[in-house]
Design brief:
By secondary structure, the chain is mostly helical. The chain is about 70% helix and about 0% strand. The protein contains five helices and no strands. It is elongated, with a radius of gyration of 21 Å. The relative contact order is 0.13.
Length: about 110
């Protein structure tokens, strides 16, 4: 099929198909991003290194500020009980990507 023979409908179908493919590519790329493992202190440290290893200094700074903001928010919500605050922080961060944590900090 020559390009000149395509109708507007054919072009729109191909364009929508292309958008869907690109969209799924972004979703799949995000699925492969490293996540925080808050199951233990050692796991947390190792996963933080994995999450930040390919970041620029600016990205590390943004991620660090986001971690601080989320941690402070969770701590403030659970001020009355230190153990509850620590558990809530683990729950808030566990399994999250850097991008998810940055988005959480903006809420």
């Amino acid at each position: 099929m020559m390009f000149a023979e395509l109708t507007k409908d054919d072009i729109m179908k191909k364009f929508i198909y292309l958008l869907v493919v690109v969209g799924f590519s972004f979703v799949l790329a995000a699925c492969g991003a490293p996540t925080i493992d808050a199951s233990s202190e050692e796991a947390m440290k190792a996963s933080m290194e994995e999450v930040t290893k390919d970041m620029t200094e600016a990205e590390k700074a943004e991620f660090g500020a986001a971690m601080m903001a989320v941690s402070m928010k969770v701590a403030m919500e659970n001020m009355s009980d230190k153990e509850k605050a620590e558990e809530a922080m683990k729950e808030a961060l566990d399994g999250k990507t850097a991008e998810e944590i940055i988005e959480m900090s903006k809420e």
